[in-house]
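Lab notes, practical 5.
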Amino acid sequence: MSGIEDLLGKDLLGQINNGNDEAQGETEIKDPEQEEYVKRKIPNDQKKESESNKPQYVQRYSQDGYLAEAVLIVNVPYFLVSKDGEISIEKELNTPSGIRKPLEASSYLNRPYSFNSKEEVQDYIKNTTNETLDTLYRKVKSIWSKYLEADNFHLTICTADTIFTLFQDKMGLTHYLYFVGNNGSGKSNNLKVFQILAYRNMMSTDITAANIYQFLGSDEEGIGTICEDEADTIDDYSEKDKMKIYKNGYTTGSPVFRTDTSFGRKQYKYNTFLF
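Output from the prediction step:
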Protein backbone atom coordinates (compact mmCIF):
# COMPACT_ATOMS: atom_id res chain seq x y z
CA MET A 1 0.00 0.00 0.00
CA SER A 2 2.92 2.34 0.76
CA GLY A 3 4.10 1.95 -2.84
CA ILE A 4 0.74 3.10 -4.18
CA GLU A 5 0.84 6.10 -1.85
CA ASP A 6 4.31 7.01 -3.05
CA LEU A 7 3.21 6.66 -6.68
CA LEU A 8 -0.04 8.60 -6.58
CA GLY A 9 0.67 10.91 -3.69
CA LYS A 10 -1.29 11.21 -0.51
CA ASP A 11 -3.53 14.03 -1.81
CA LEU A 12 -4.67 12.06 -4.83
CA LEU A 13 -5.30 9.00 -2.69
CA GLY A 14 -7.37 11.20 -0.38
CA GLN A 15 -9.49 12.29 -3.36
CA ILE A 16 -10.03 8.66 -4.38
CA ASN A 17 -11.12 7.80 -0.85
CA ASN A 18 -13.49 10.81 -0.78
CA GLY A 19 -14.96 9.67 -4.08
CA ASN A 20 -15.68 6.27 -2.58
CA ASP A 21 -17.34 7.96 0.37
CA GLU A 22 -19.59 9.99 -1.95
CA ALA A 23 -20.67 6.82 -3.72
CA GLN A 24 -21.71 5.46 -0.34
CA GLY A 25 -23.53 8.69 0.60
CA GLU A 26 -21.12 9.52 3.42
CA THR A 27 -19.54 12.78 2.17
CA GLU A 28 -18.52 15.12 4.96
CA ILE A 29 -17.46 18.76 4.56
CA LYS A 30 -14.60 19.34 6.94
CA ASP A 31 -13.57 22.82 5.78
CA PRO A 32 -15.43 25.24 8.14
CA GLU A 33 -15.52 28.04 5.56
CA GLN A 34 -16.91 25.74 2.89
CA GLU A 35 -19.48 24.35 5.31
CA GLU A 36 -20.64 27.84 6.23
CA TYR A 37 -20.87 28.79 2.56
CA VAL A 38 -23.04 25.77 1.80
CA LYS A 39 -25.34 26.67 4.70
CA ARG A 40 -25.79 30.24 3.48
CA LYS A 41 -26.11 29.49 -0.21
CA ILE A 42 -29.62 29.46 -1.73
CA PRO A 43 -29.92 28.58 -5.41
CA ASN A 44 -31.16 31.41 -7.62
CA ASP A 45 -34.09 29.37 -8.88
CA GLN A 46 -35.26 28.84 -5.29
CA LYS A 47 -35.04 32.57 -4.65
CA LYS A 48 -37.12 33.32 -7.72
CA GLU A 49 -39.67 30.69 -6.77
CA SER A 50 -39.93 32.14 -3.28
CA GLU A 51 -40.45 35.67 -4.62
CA SER A 52 -43.07 34.54 -7.14
CA ASN A 53 -45.04 32.81 -4.39
CA LYS A 54 -45.04 35.90 -2.21
CA PRO A 55 -48.39 37.71 -2.66
CA GLN A 56 -48.53 41.31 -3.86
CA TYR A 57 -51.16 43.59 -2.33
CA VAL A 58 -52.73 45.89 -4.93
CA GLN A 59 -55.74 48.16 -5.44
CA ARG A 60 -56.19 47.13 -9.03
CA TYR A 61 -55.01 44.45 -11.42
CA SER A 62 -55.70 44.75 -15.15
CA GLN A 63 -53.45 42.20 -16.85
CA ASP A 64 -53.72 38.63 -18.12
CA GLY A 65 -57.35 39.15 -19.10
CA TYR A 66 -58.42 40.33 -15.64
CA LEU A 67 -59.92 43.60 -14.50
CA ALA A 68 -59.92 43.46 -10.71
CA GLU A 69 -60.69 46.28 -8.28
CA ALA A 70 -59.98 45.99 -4.56
CA VAL A 71 -62.97 46.70 -2.30
CA LEU A 72 -63.96 46.30 1.34
CA ILE A 73 -67.06 44.32 2.22
CA VAL A 74 -67.88 44.72 5.93
CA ASN A 75 -64.25 45.90 6.24
CA VAL A 76 -62.93 42.63 4.77
CA PRO A 77 -60.75 42.98 1.62
CA TYR A 78 -61.96 41.42 -1.64
CA PHE A 79 -61.53 41.83 -5.37
CA LEU A 80 -64.40 42.58 -7.71
CA VAL A 81 -63.23 40.73 -10.81
CA SER A 82 -64.59 41.34 -14.29
CA LYS A 83 -63.74 38.57 -16.70
CA ASP A 84 -65.58 37.26 -19.79
CA GLY A 85 -68.49 39.62 -19.14
CA GLU A 86 -69.12 38.41 -15.57
CA ILE A 87 -68.30 40.12 -12.25
CA SER A 88 -67.33 37.93 -9.32
CA ILE A 89 -66.15 38.48 -5.74
CA GLU A 90 -62.73 36.93 -5.07
CA LYS A 91 -60.37 36.89 -2.10
CA GLU A 92 -57.24 36.70 -4.28
CA LEU A 93 -56.04 36.23 -7.84
CA ASN A 94 -53.71 33.47 -8.98
CA THR A 95 -52.18 35.08 -12.04
CA PRO A 96 -49.31 33.94 -14.30
CA SER A 97 -47.13 36.60 -12.69
CA GLY A 98 -47.95 35.60 -9.11
CA ILE A 99 -50.56 35.90 -6.39
CA ARG A 100 -52.40 39.22 -6.06
CA LYS A 101 -54.33 40.14 -2.92
CA PRO A 102 -56.51 43.20 -2.22
CA LEU A 103 -55.25 45.90 0.13
CA GLU A 104 -56.12 45.68 3.79
CA ALA A 105 -58.28 48.50 5.15
CA SER A 106 -55.36 50.08 7.01
CA SER A 107 -53.20 50.23 3.87
CA TYR A 108 -55.34 52.65 1.86
CA LEU A 109 -54.09 56.19 1.33
CA ASN A 110 -57.28 57.07 -0.55
CA ARG A 111 -60.93 56.44 0.26
CA PRO A 112 -61.60 52.73 -0.33
CA TYR A 113 -64.69 51.42 -2.09
CA SER A 114 -66.72 50.03 0.81
CA PHE A 115 -69.89 47.94 0.93
CA ASN A 116 -72.04 46.72 3.81
CA SER A 117 -72.66 43.24 2.40
CA LYS A 118 -72.14 41.04 -0.63
CA GLU A 119 -75.82 41.50 -1.40
CA GLU A 120 -75.24 45.24 -1.71
CA VAL A 121 -72.46 44.56 -4.22
CA GLN A 122 -74.78 42.37 -6.28
CA ASP A 123 -77.46 45.09 -6.21
CA TYR A 124 -74.98 47.64 -7.57
CA ILE A 125 -73.92 45.25 -10.33
CA LYS A 126 -77.55 44.63 -11.27
CA ASN A 127 -78.49 48.33 -11.21
CA THR A 128 -75.56 49.38 -13.43
CA THR A 129 -76.29 46.86 -16.18
CA ASN A 130 -78.12 49.45 -18.28
CA GLU A 131 -75.85 52.40 -17.50
CA THR A 132 -74.18 54.22 -20.40
CA LEU A 133 -71.72 57.11 -20.57
CA ASP A 134 -74.66 59.44 -21.20
CA THR A 135 -76.65 58.34 -18.15
CA LEU A 136 -73.48 58.39 -16.04
CA TYR A 137 -72.65 61.91 -17.25
CA ARG A 138 -76.09 63.22 -16.32
CA LYS A 139 -75.94 61.68 -12.84
CA VAL A 140 -72.45 62.99 -12.13
CA LYS A 141 -73.30 66.48 -13.38
CA SER A 142 -76.40 66.58 -11.18
CA ILE A 143 -74.18 65.97 -8.14
CA TRP A 144 -71.73 68.69 -9.13
CA SER A 145 -74.65 71.10 -9.70
CA LYS A 146 -76.11 70.27 -6.29
CA TYR A 147 -73.00 71.20 -4.32
CA LEU A 148 -71.47 73.99 -6.42
CA GLU A 149 -72.71 77.33 -7.69
CA ALA A 150 -70.86 77.65 -10.98
CA ASP A 151 -71.46 78.32 -14.65
CA ASN A 152 -72.21 75.52 -17.08
CA PHE A 153 -68.65 75.36 -18.46
CA HIS A 154 -67.23 74.82 -14.97
CA LEU A 155 -69.74 72.09 -14.17
CA THR A 156 -69.23 70.43 -17.57
CA ILE A 157 -65.43 70.23 -17.35
CA CYS A 158 -65.58 68.95 -13.75
CA THR A 159 -68.14 66.32 -14.72
CA ALA A 160 -66.17 65.21 -17.77
CA ASP A 161 -62.94 64.99 -15.77
CA THR A 162 -64.64 62.98 -13.04
CA ILE A 163 -65.66 60.34 -15.57
CA PHE A 164 -62.30 60.60 -17.34
CA THR A 165 -60.46 59.48 -14.19
CA LEU A 166 -62.12 56.07 -14.51
CA PHE A 167 -60.42 55.60 -17.89
CA GLN A 168 -57.20 57.58 -17.43
CA ASP A 169 -54.99 54.49 -17.76
CA LYS A 170 -56.57 53.81 -21.18
CA MET A 171 -55.98 57.36 -22.44
CA GLY A 172 -52.35 57.71 -21.38
CA LEU A 173 -52.52 61.53 -21.40
CA THR A 174 -54.14 64.00 -19.04
CA HIS A 175 -54.42 67.64 -18.05
CA TYR A 176 -54.70 69.07 -14.53
CA LEU A 177 -57.40 71.19 -12.92
CA TYR A 178 -56.22 74.13 -10.84
CA PHE A 179 -58.88 75.99 -8.86
CA VAL A 180 -57.99 79.63 -8.16
CA GLY A 181 -60.03 82.12 -6.13
CA ASN A 182 -60.35 84.24 -3.02
CA ASN A 183 -61.16 82.87 0.41
CA GLY A 184 -64.72 81.62 0.48
CA SER A 185 -64.92 81.17 -3.29
CA GLY A 186 -65.43 77.40 -3.00
CA LYS A 187 -62.03 76.05 -4.02
CA SER A 188 -62.06 73.39 -1.30
CA ASN A 189 -65.65 72.46 -2.16
CA ASN A 190 -64.53 71.58 -5.68
CA LEU A 191 -61.84 69.30 -4.28
CA LYS A 192 -64.25 67.71 -1.83
CA VAL A 193 -66.75 66.79 -4.53
CA PHE A 194 -63.94 65.49 -6.68
CA GLN A 195 -62.61 63.43 -3.78
CA ILE A 196 -65.97 61.71 -3.40
CA LEU A 197 -66.67 61.12 -7.10
CA ALA A 198 -63.29 60.66 -8.81
CA TYR A 199 -61.47 57.37 -9.16
CA ARG A 200 -59.62 56.38 -5.96
CA ASN A 201 -58.86 59.92 -4.89
CA MET A 202 -56.26 60.83 -2.28
CA MET A 203 -56.88 64.33 -0.88
CA SER A 204 -54.62 66.16 1.54
CA THR A 205 -52.57 69.27 2.13
CA ASP A 206 -48.78 69.49 2.00
CA ILE A 207 -48.41 66.30 -0.05
CA THR A 208 -44.75 65.31 -0.51
CA ALA A 209 -43.01 63.53 -3.36
CA ALA A 210 -42.60 60.49 -1.11
CA ASN A 211 -46.38 60.43 -0.50
CA ILE A 212 -47.00 60.36 -4.25
CA TYR A 213 -44.46 57.58 -4.84
CA GLN A 214 -46.06 55.50 -2.09
CA PHE A 215 -49.55 56.11 -3.48
CA LEU A 216 -48.82 55.39 -7.15
CA GLY A 217 -46.38 52.53 -6.54
CA SER A 218 -44.47 50.77 -9.32
CA ASP A 219 -46.93 48.23 -10.70
CA GLU A 220 -49.67 49.71 -12.93
CA GLU A 221 -50.08 53.32 -14.00
CA GLY A 222 -53.15 55.47 -13.40
CA ILE A 223 -54.28 53.65 -10.25
CA GLY A 224 -55.71 56.78 -8.61
CA THR A 225 -56.09 60.55 -8.52
CA ILE A 226 -54.80 63.28 -6.22
CA CYS A 227 -56.41 66.46 -4.89
CA GLU A 228 -54.05 68.81 -3.08
CA ASP A 229 -55.60 71.61 -1.04
CA GLU A 230 -53.76 74.81 -0.10
CA ALA A 231 -51.22 74.37 -2.88
CA ASP A 232 -50.18 78.04 -2.90
CA THR A 233 -46.48 77.22 -2.50
CA ILE A 234 -46.30 74.59 -5.21
CA ASP A 235 -43.83 76.73 -7.22
CA ASP A 236 -41.43 77.18 -4.27
CA TYR A 237 -37.98 75.62 -4.42
CA SER A 238 -38.86 73.43 -1.44
CA GLU A 239 -41.53 71.74 -3.60
CA LYS A 240 -39.25 71.10 -6.57
CA ASP A 241 -39.32 67.30 -6.28
CA LYS A 242 -43.11 67.22 -6.21
CA MET A 243 -43.32 69.73 -9.07
CA LYS A 244 -41.11 67.48 -11.19
CA ILE A 245 -43.57 64.63 -10.65
CA TYR A 246 -46.53 66.78 -11.72
CA LYS A 247 -44.66 68.07 -14.77
CA ASN A 248 -43.64 64.53 -15.67
CA GLY A 249 -46.91 62.82 -14.77
CA TYR A 250 -49.25 64.13 -17.46
CA THR A 251 -48.40 61.17 -19.69
CA THR A 252 -47.72 57.46 -19.22
CA GLY A 253 -44.34 55.81 -19.56
CA SER A 254 -42.33 58.37 -17.58
CA PRO A 255 -41.40 56.73 -14.26
CA VAL A 256 -38.94 58.08 -11.71
CA PHE A 257 -36.06 55.91 -10.48
CA ARG A 258 -34.74 55.92 -6.93
CA THR A 259 -31.95 53.90 -5.27
CA ASP A 260 -32.45 52.36 -1.84
CA THR A 261 -29.16 51.98 0.06
CA SER A 262 -30.66 50.51 3.26
CA PHE A 263 -29.45 47.01 2.35
CA GLY A 264 -26.86 47.30 -0.40
CA ARG A 265 -27.98 49.18 -3.50
CA LYS A 266 -31.35 48.36 -5.04
CA GLN A 267 -33.03 50.49 -7.68
CA TYR A 268 -36.78 51.05 -7.66
CA LYS A 269 -39.15 52.41 -10.29
CA TYR A 270 -42.05 54.67 -9.25
CA ASN A 271 -44.92 55.70 -11.50
CA THR A 272 -45.87 59.37 -11.92
CA PHE A 273 -48.89 59.34 -14.25
CA LEU A 274 -52.17 60.43 -12.66
CA PHE A 275 -54.95 63.01 -12.79
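Observations recorded by the TA: The chain has three domains: 2-41, 55-129, 131-275. Residues 32 and 38 are 10 Å apart (CA to CA).
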